[in-house]
Amino acid sequence: xxxxxxxxxxxxxxxxxxxxxxxxxxxxxxxxxxxxxxxxxxxxxxxxxxxxxxxxxxxxxxxxxxxxxxxxxxxxxxxxxxxxxxxxxxxxxxxxxxxxxxxxxxxxxxxxxxxxxxxxxxxxxxxxxxxxxxxxxxxxxxxxxxxxxxxxxxxxxxxxxxxxxxxxxxxxxxxxxxxxxx
Length: 182
Ligand SMILES: [Zn+2]
Ligand SMILES: [Zn+2]
Known about the structure:
The chain has about 180 residues and is mainly alpha-helical. The chain has one domain (about 5-180): Jann2411-like domain (Jann2411-like fold). It has helices spanning about 5-25, 30-40, 50-70, 75-85, 115-130, 165-180; strands at about 95, 105, 135-140, 150. Strands 1-2 form a two-stranded antiparallel ribbon. Strands 3-4 form a two-stranded antiparallel sheet. It is globular, with a radius of gyration of 18 Å. One zinc ion binds near residues 42, 95, 97, 103 and 105.
């Protein structure tokens, strides 16, 4: 029996951030420090420029994998994630800081910010793969949009990225096509 928990909420939040970062890379308008600071990564505001740059480079290396993730079977995705995990200094611990309540850190406090962030992303992907497989990951259904999405809806109904213009202009185009077909 799977129970919604603080950890589930955190995993979902991290996956949403991962998708936002991937979309920033795709659209070439990523401000990683801002995205991660706003998402509540407590070390993001003060992380070194070098570590922030490495975090961005490491996400760029993951991007081709994230783009195709929704079409991969779990075993293939797991092989890739397992390979990435072996590169990281993962030593889980329960921590409590900044009044957020007890939660898991996957890396030691001595880890670089980029190691901590990438470990968060990969461990969230690990949980997601074990719980739901790869079906919640998708690419926007709008014609000229390359952005990705993570679909947390119960009935798996998401077709477009989080940019509301993609859904509305596609519906408008569908409507016009139906009118022409009359
Ligand atoms: Zn923390
Ligand atoms: Zn879109």
